[in-house]
Amino acid sequence: MSHRVVIVGGGFGGLYAAQELRRANVEITLIDRRNFHLFQPLLYQVATGALSPGEIASPLRYVLNGQKNTKVLLGEVTGVEPGPREVLLADGGRVPYDTLILATGATHDYFGHPEWAQYAPGLKTIEDATEIRTRVLLAFEQAERETDPAVRRALLTFVVVGGGPTGVELAGALGEISRDTLRKDFRSINPAEANIFLIEGSSRLLPPYPPKLSSAAERSLIDLGVQTRAGSVVTHIDADGVVLKAGETETRLAARTVLWAAGVHASPLGQLLAARTGVSLDRVGRVKVEADLSIAGHPEILVIGDLACREQDGKPIPGVAPSAMQMGRYAAALIMKRLRGESAAPFRYWDKGSLATIGRNRAVAAIGPLHFSGYLAWLTWIFVHLLFIVEFENRILIAFHWAYDYFTFNRGARLITGHWRPGKSLTDASS
Amino acid sequence: MSHRVVIVGGGFGGLYAAQELRRANVEITLIDRRNFHLFQPLLYQVATGALSPGEIASPLRYVLNGQKNTKVLLGEVTGVEPGPREVLLADGGRVPYDTLILATGATHDYFGHPEWAQYAPGLKTIEDATEIRTRVLLAFEQAERETDPAVRRALLTFVVVGGGPTGVELAGALGEISRDTLRKDFRSINPAEANIFLIEGSSRLLPPYPPKLSSAAERSLIDLGVQTRAGSVVTHIDADGVVLKAGETETRLAARTVLWAAGVHASPLGQLLAARTGVSLDRVGRVKVEADLSIAGHPEILVIGDLACREQDGKPIPGVAPSAMQMGRYAAALIMKRLRGESAAPFRYWDKGSLATIGRNRAVAAIGPLHFSGYLAWLTWIFVHLLFIVEFENRILIAFHWAYDYFTFNRGARLITGHWRPGKSLTDASS
Question: Number of CB pairs < 8 Å for A and B?
């Protein structure tokens, strides 16, 4: 019987590991609780009506259907038994492994305030994205009908919490929606009067980027009408808005739409693994891995992607798509080397650079020693993102959307969907 | 002050009425409870994973944003007051009109068995389509993991109730999904072994079509592996399947997925209008209209599209997209003529023909005296549908999807979304 590799999670880490093993003499089972691979870097474009969910998601079975050694299993993993080497599923099923790759990623975290989740949705799933899309579009719709100027102002105030790449991209897209996309759509309100706030706790936006690019991103956001608040932390969120604290000063911002792009917490599978194997976790629940991405005492369990915690040259390896892809490929290569009886060099993350887009013609890029912003960075961002889209069909669809919308300032997928109905508040409807 | 036209419903009838009035000296308010116009004839393609919701939906504000005399209002109409000439909204708002156009369409109807709705979703909204998509894809996923052959067979049995155009299109698409799209995707099951039943109460499929085309459609369906059951009625539906009655014989079909494409009932606004104005309704709740589409005693209230009931040359005008478009244009022309003091000829429906597609290269067409099927009918179907898609952007996206998927046998948008999670049954999850 050939070596059984079980991969949990079909994100960048898990999918790249499976694909790298395509010619290996192993029996792969890829388990995911969703039936598709999601291209998360473009999820904010679904949340802001530029793309449709299907365009950034690819069915895992389809992506892997030509790979004879691979089976895809739709299921939720609820435990790992390192003794008998089995993975447990929510429906009671057990999947035995010889090598296990855990790649279940991360979810958002509200810094000990789970009650904020209902007021400030985060952006990790397709459902999160369509929920945010509904909230944003609905705020403009309700403002159009509102006669009380204070309420209308709160409806037209959008707060994005977290000034990392996701927060910057969301705030930039909100700026474009209000200035360009909806420009001619309303009769009673002027969408361009929307107030968009981007809140970042540290002293500048995009903290991991070079300071020059943080400033460039901030200037681009200000051009789009976004009000940036670096050095401010959110101390409270409710249905009416947020409380910000900058130094000793607390201010209340009345806002009906708050979006969360701040805290991240590793998938709960880390905790389950720690309970069973004694492996240590970091502050946000990520699993501390050895130089070969295995966990202490269990060389047959590899942890990759956002679920893994590893330092390199004194700095943590960032939880971004390229590091997940590289870890996935490394894990696959490690398994093949072990099967041949060879040893493997430690994993090394190759930082290809960072890219964040703010809006049309506006992006920032740090690629090795090159730090640049503006049109060229934006073209680079487009090129790189199209390159990594998994399905060829989606690549063409997205390229067409972007080209068409660039010239027309349109965003064709701005649908209000879900269980909301007019006359109900959003909170009523979701209960 | 100019003449106030209130249009309720942004489907084909309401949207075409608003657009036809674009240069009229009137003040238009278009009210819809959704923020988009939905191209319903392609909804089954969303339900079967070929297209994404955003590709068949166009934001009403966007479609009408260049039309200065028109205001779009997101709201749910809960009443009509013919005395003061006001429309009532769910949130308590009131919208006064001089002429009212009601175009709220129809929903599905379970022939007095509302409890069937949970087991057999119908196909009228985007949410219906994504729900059906989830059920169909999940049935294959669950079958892949099922070891009991009887349960597996029930999971791989799909019943479509209703052999009109929607039922035929759904059943044909299910045939293609199981034979082509998913062909290489599973390891334990062969999707081509799925049993797809199409149930029709009358003696042949597509009852309003010429008998020759009914036979052609049936042959095409059989080629795709669909088992057609004309002359059978459904007498019971539950979580385990359906009971069919043909003549005196009752048979139980074990099926985990049942889709409803049978009964249609007019929007409840018809009933509200009847209570206020005494207008009569037909058996399925449609409003009986006069020769000029107004209602008896209220020339200022026009009812169009699927909500209207009118005979022409002894036959009812069918509830299809072309009749709604023609009624919308007629209503607009009538208003303009009245404002000029002219009288209008009665509405006449011009039957441009009927088209239904079964699958790739397979369709049936009845256009005037021409009745044809096969490749040419299929090309005609594609051409006509692309022509009537409202947004140019969506037209290109859909054309690309169709062309690409034609050659690759793919359906790129087959996502399992919503609140379902593995380990729960679908019924648990939706509660």
Answer: 168
